[in-house]
Design brief:
Layout lengths: L12 H10 L6 H9 L8 E5 L5 H9 L4 E6 L2 H10 L6 E5 L17 E7 L7 H14 E12 L5 H10 L16 H11 L1 E10 L2 E8 L1
Parallel strand pairs: 1-2, 1-4, 2-3, 4-5
Antiparallel strand pairs: 5-7, 6-7
Helix pairs in contact: 5-7
Bound molecules: S-adenosylmethionine.
């Protein structure tokens, strides 16, 4: 029997463009981003953004931390094009094409080494649960001691009714929600981060299914 490939519509240009048109109006998004910004320390020099989309979150972080260099990673051709457009002429940012279903590529630089902060917003829930766990471990290995992982994520609701309510509040239904979503509860993900070795692991902000999960590499 051949295994069915998990659905991920994000490589479609229409799917990416449809999201970009409504991305800024996602309920409570600004609150989650502000909570994430608080976690980026002044000494941060190198940032990795996983599933960067058009690079909006990374641009917010770099507006506050202009002396940083960054890698912005995504696999969607339309998103990569949008990110390259946003960061055109900005030598601080390297845009990298990579599918998060596969192990992270070598993103190190001999002179700069690993990352002080790995950030991500609303992206990692598009990979299957098993891959989320291995990806979190790969992220841990890429972070300098003292560095932080900040995952502003779409997580699972504890009950179907709460899931339906969330969808309704963001203008979707169970019929129209993105079939690419592979939502996982907060507790499991925080447990994985602790097992991997992150410390000060917590859910530092949450509105319904949007949550900021974070941990520090000691
Ligand atoms: C909901 S959008 C979020 C984009 C951006 N981070 C933001 O907050 O606006 C999800 C992003 O994850 C990317 N993505 C989904 N699955 C991916 C995968 N397997 N590998 C790399 N990127 C992926 C999509 O292309 C898209 O840019």
């Amino acid at each position: 029997m051949t295994a069915t490939k998990p659905v991920n519509l994000w490589s479609s240009t229409d799917h990416a463009r449809d999201y970009l048109e409504r991305a800024d109006s996602i309920s409570h998004r600004g609150e989650g981003e502000s909570a994430l910004l608080e976690l980026i320390s002044p000494g941060t020099r190198r940032i990795l953004d996983l599933g960067t989309g058009d690079g909006g979150l990374l641009a917010l972080v770099q507006a506050k931390h202009p002396d940083t260099e960054a890698v912005a990673l995504d696999f969607s051709p339309a998103m990569l094009e949008a990110a390259r457009k946003r960061f055109a002429g900005d030598s601080r940012v390297t845009v990298v094409a990579h599918n998060l279903d596969a192990p992270l590529p070598d993103l190190g630089r001999p002179d700069l080494g690993k990352f002080d902060a790995v950030i991500s917003s609303f992206a990692i829930h598009h990979v299957v649960h098993e891959r989320k766990r291995t990806l979190y471990a790969e992220i841990f290995d890429l972070i300098h001691p003292g560095g932080v992982f900040c995952n502003l994520e779409h997580v699972a609701s504890p009950t179907p009714r709460l899931h339906e309510e969330f969808l309704q509040r963001i203008g979707f239904t169970v019929e129209t929600e993105d079939p690419s979503n592979k939502l996982l509860d907060v507790e499991t993900q925080l447990g994985w981060l602790r097992e991997i070795g992150f410390v000060d692991v917590d859910c530092l902000w949450k509105w319904r299914e949007l949550a900021l999960l974070a941990g520090v590499r000691a």
